[in-house]
Amino acid sequence: MTPLAKPIRIMLVETQQIVLWALEKLIEVAKPRMEVVAKASSGAEAVLLASQTQPDIVLLDMCVDDGKGADVVASIVSGKCTRVIIYTAERDLDTVDRAILNGARGLVLKEQSTDTLLSAISRVHAGQVWLNHEITSRIFTEFVRPAGRAPVDSAAALIASLTPKELSIMRTFAKYPDYQISKISGKLFISQHTMRNHLTSIFAKLDVTNRCGMCGFIKRNGHVLQIVLVSLASISEELTNSLCNVI
C-alpha cells in the first residue's frame, strides 16, 4: 500500500459471534489495506451503523433478521457510496438473486477460502462485481425473459430493453461523465450523428429526457447495469470459444 492510500473501511454484519470474531481477526491480518470500523448482528443495527460510519464495504450475513438479509441490502445502499458483499452459506437462488438486485455487489460463500473473501473485498471496493458465471447468467436470463412475464425489477426491465451498443454507450458515459459527446463518439469510433441517435433511443427507453437523467439512472442502478455487462461479456466469451472449437 502506498503512503497516501487509505484502508478499505469495512463493517461486519453477522449473527454468529464466533464467525464475527473470526472475520474481525481476518481483517486485522489484512491491515493496513483494510480495517473494521463497525460490527452489527441485526438488520436495524446494520442500517444505523452504516449511516453513522459510512463504511466502504459491508460484509453481510444473509441470515440476519431471520433470513431477511436481502431486504437489509436495499436499506444500506440506498443513496450511499457503501457497497455490500453477501457472505453466506445460503444457497436459495431466489434469496441470492433478490440480494443482488437490491444492490449487493458480490457474493462469497462461507465455504470458500479466506483469500477469496479478501479478493472479493478488494475487487468490489475497486468498483467491480464479484459474482460467479452461474449467478450473472441466471439474472441476465431473468432480465430478458419473454414478454408477458414481468421482470423482477423495474430498472432491470428498462436495462433489458437496451441493445448491446446502447449498453456500451451508457458504460462509457458512466466512466467519463465529464466528456463531451464528440469525445465519447471518438472513443467508440462512431459519428456524433450516430451517437445522438443512440442517445435519443436510450433516453426514450429509460424514460429520461437528457444526459443528466441518464447519468442519474446509471448512478442509481449501476450495479444492475454492471451485472448485465458482465453477463454479456461471459456470453460473448463462450460464443468465441465455441467458434474457435468449431474452426
Structure write-up:
The chain has 247 residues and is an alpha/beta fold. Helices cover 60% and strands 12% of the residues. Strands 2-1-3-4-5 form a 5-stranded parallel beta sheet, sandwiched between helices. Strand 4 (83-88), helix 5 (93-101) and strand 5 form a beta-alpha-beta unit. Helix 9 packs across helix 11, helix 9 (164-175) crosses helix 12 (211-246) and helix 11 crosses helix 12. The longest helix is centred in the C-terminal third of the chain and has 36 residues, at 211-246. It is elongated, with a radius of gyration of 19 Å. The chain starts with 7 loop residues before the first strand and ends with a helix.
What's this entry about, in short?
With 247 residues, the chain is α/β, with parallel strands linked by helices.
Summarize the helices and strands and which ones pair or pack.
Layout: E1 8-13, H1 17-29, E2 34-40, H2 43-53, E3 57-60, H3 64-67, H4 69-77, E4 83-88, H5 93-101, E5 104-109, H6 114-125, H7 133-143, H8 154-160, H9 164-175, H10 181-188, H11 192-206, H12 211-246
Parallel strand pairs: 1-2, 1-3, 3-4, 4-5
Helix pairs in contact: 2-4, 4-5, 7-12, 8-12, 9-11, 9-12, 11-12
